[in-house]
Amino acid sequence: MIRIDFQNVLDSKIGARNGLSKSFLNDFLKKSEPLLKKVLKSEDKPGYAFLALPEDTKTVQAIHKFAKSQKGKWQNIVVLGIGGSALGGIALQDSILGNWHNLKNKPRLFFVDNIDPDYVESLFSMIDFKKTLFVVVSKSGGTVEPMALYAVAKEKLLKTVKKTFRQHLVFVTDPKSGILREMGNKEKIQMFDIPPNVGGRFSVHSAAALVPAALAGINIEKLMRGAKKMKEEIKKSHGEKNPALLLAALQFLMDWKKGKNMVVMMPYSNRLYRIADWYRQLLAESIGKNSKAGPTPMAALGTTDQHSQLQLWQEGPEDKWIIFLRVLNQASRLKLGSHLPSEMAYLKNRAMADALNAALKGTAESLAKSGKPNCTIELNQINEETVGALLFLLEVQVALLGELYGVNAFNQPGVEQSKIMTKKILSR
Amino acid sequence: MIRIDFQNVLDSKIGARNGLSKSFLNDFLKKSEPLLKKVLKSEDKPGYAFLALPEDTKTVQAIHKFAKSQKGKWQNIVVLGIGGSALGGIALQDSILGNWHNLKNKPRLFFVDNIDPDYVESLFSMIDFKKTLFVVVSKSGGTVEPMALYAVAKEKLLKTVKKTFRQHLVFVTDPKSGILREMGNKEKIQMFDIPPNVGGRFSVHSAAALVPAALAGINIEKLMRGAKKMKEEIKKSHGEKNPALLLAALQFLMDWKKGKNMVVMMPYSNRLYRIADWYRQLLAESIGKNSKAGPTPMAALGTTDQHSQLQLWQEGPEDKWIIFLRVLNQASRLKLGSHLPSEMAYLKNRAMADALNAALKGTAESLAKSGKPNCTIELNQINEETVGALLFLLEVQVALLGELYGVNAFNQPGVEQSKIMTKKILSR
């Protein structure tokens, strides 16, 4: 389902300056295996509980049932959430439903993840509130943005649908604590739980992303099946055959041994781009701690960003490494046809997918030739199962990175100061 | 129109570890002024010719006239271009027309900047080719992606609109050389020029972006007026009052004196986000050269990415600095109303714009308090003039950075190797 090609991080391929020796890597993998075991045994501990989500069939069934009851009722599903309460859902929307979903299909699915008044007002003035279901997602219930967005939406709902406003609302939050839970109880709103020990950025396999996904028609059972399969693979495989162990080791060694303080995730697929964006939060917030650690993750898109970032990667300072995402079997068999200039005759009647994958390969090899480390995560195809598996894999990688870097991967104390100062400014 | 607040890079505010002393900065600005003068005098040299674009009223008039002749004819404008041939146009679309343009208005404006078959096929199957104008943008005419996309579009045009296909095509390219110019001449296609000495990533004030912009209804005269005003300001002002000089000095010193190998551009405005993305190419491709130089630019969005990246910036390694973009007068006066939880009573009936700008200020101050350098570019409001000015300002900054870093800001030799290897793979 998912395979990792890591030849382009080895010294035999890219030289000793930036490359790792195979024996050193194998040694490191062996030494890190107990840490992975520790992570996998921590399902009931704060933060680590995301590991148990693939088995939570009860929640999946409940969401599935609810989504079925809403089918055909809505033109728009509007999710009010930010950070981990939006990025997972967006990644699922783009990867499974494709990039043009909202221009083609109903219900349209919008993630409103900012308090930019222009952005919000122009969306809210465009959609028919009578045909819109709002899903408010906030683990803590205390985040300002979704609550501010909810306040605006509720005011307009009360004006447009009046007493039936409850039917236009779903809350997804902690099962017991927090303002959103309180408000939902008081107002008798349909609610779904994010398990207490699951953090926002690790919540893509929980109701946080599954509720919007199911409402938009994504097969969440298959998504969870993919995550479960990946979990089993991670549990039973060893050394370089273990994708979570391997990816964590590569990231850690590229940073600490080779001084790469940046990592780029670059899918050659528009549908997968927002997964790189989701990963950006996952890695940055989990590992960026205590001044001592924190690779900076970046998202890029192939081939697009070959014409934007590749020059810097190829000839600039050697301060980053790249993770490519490759789709082996593209569903589309679109051909390039014959209307090409003679200079590009080699492309004649080729599948566009072949040109895309050749560009990935050409770029990876070109970087390797210049001694720039990179690896490629290969997905058999894009569907619920592979996406569910990939997201789970990356979550386990990051949890394991917490152990390797020696930081708590599940908190984010650094964002508090900004909130306090913002509140102070507004309270003046 | 545009002001730069740089208090949060000064040692008096953030300490000497990461801060610059005012006297050192002033000294550096003084020493760099001759380099800016040199840049401004180079309008007729390869690369630097973007500096002359704001005075090119003839081109603007020709594009305006053409756009007028096409008004009401099309449901879709589809731009086939990549890198500099797309990013400028996308930045204009989002900033001037807003984030939801394609869901609200006609003609819709699409930038197809990838050869992902799924992405392309699903778009092409959705739009009515009889109501679609294709704009092929390629400075050199030799870039694979736009030519491949053109081949696919032409095949479908020949099937759907048959002999009238010429009326569905516009080419924007070099006035004399290149495959696209040749093809246009042969097929008698409507063409516009990108001046020979203007490079792709510096072409946003040329036909490359102005043709799509004008076709979608953007006032390109005002856009150019903004650029012209900015040019005059850059020509006549000195020291810290000169925005291009100041921004270039800050970037250079943050990198070379303070070791920040990353720079984040973070607009607190969804409309301005793609300007940060455009800047990402501009800076990376222009300065990432010769192993000796190359800050890595990143795009982030406020407040959204406070919930994704801020933790890392605040508590992770001190390897980056931040450029915020702030809109002083938001057009929308959307209010947060009264349906807020009591814990957020301080937001009651406040304008959402105030909450957004307070979050920017709170974040900037919070970073400063921890010694993390940042500055804020303030735009009076978002419109054609301010956007035209901002883009021009950033272009001059990057041209000047070429002088400071001692690299040729106008070539991109590092992307050739990947192209050669890709071709080899496909020719096998």
Write a concise synopsis of the structure shown.
Chain A is built from 16 helices and ten strands. Chain A has helices spanning about 10-15, 20-40, 55-70, 85-95, 100-105, 115-125, 145-160, 180-185, 205-215, 220-235, 245-255, 275-285, 310-315, 350-370, 385-405, 415-425, and strands at about 1-5, 75-80, 110, 130-135, 170-175, 190-195, 260-265, 295-300, 320-325, 375-380.
Helix/strand layout:
2 copies of one chain form a homodimer.
Chain A: E1 2-5, H1 11-14, H2 22-40, H3 57-70, E2 76-80, H4 87-97, H5 101-104, E3 108-112, H6 117-124, E4 132-137, H7 144-160, E5 169-173, H8 179-187, E6 190-193, H9 207-215, H10 220-236, H11 243-256, E7 262-267, H12 273-287, E8 296-299, H13 310-315, E9 320-327, H14 352-369, E10 374-379, H15 384-405, H16 416-427
Parallel strand pairs in A: 2-3, 2-4, 4-5, 5-6, 7-8, 7-9, 9-10
Antiparallel strand pairs in A: 1-10
Helix pairs in contact in A: 2-11, 2-15, 3-9, 4-9, 4-12, 10-15, 11-15, 12-15
- Regions of chain A with pLDDT < 50 over 5+ consecutive residues? none
What name is given to the CATH topology of the largest domain in chain A? Rossmann fold
CATH architecture of the largest domain in chain A: 3-Layer(aba) Sandwich
Number of domains of chain A: 2
Please name the two chains that share the biggest interface, counting residues whose Cβ lies under 8 Å from a Cβ on the partner chain: A-B, 126 and 126 residues
CATH classification class of the largest domain in chain A: Alpha Beta
Bulk shape of chain A: globular
| Largest sheet, strands/sense/barrel of chain A | 5 strands, mixed
